[in-house]
Amino acid sequence: MAVTVRIPTPLRKFTDDQAEVQADGANVGEVLSFVGEKHPGLAERIFDGKGKVRRFVNLFANDEDVRFLDNLDTELQDGDELSIVPAIAGGR
User: Fold this and answer.
1) N or C: which end of the chain has fewer CB within 10 A?
2) In what order do the strands lie in the sheet with 3-6?
């Protein structure tokens, strides 16, 4: 099963500048583990020391925020897309 993982620009240095990578896994957590193993350094930017998704990282399975689904247990199918979207802060 292949899921397309969209990599944001700030994290592409861990994926050889690839905007998308293919990953295997039945759910969001498995896919992110797969990507983290294939691309060293990436998992540390997504997960904190306790294995939880960092609060400034948003994950979207087929354009749906996984926080409103089953978080890391959100099931994925062959051909699905998982987007990693860092939160953007700004202002004055």
Assistant:
1) C
2) 20-23, 3-6, 81-86, 57-61, 64-65
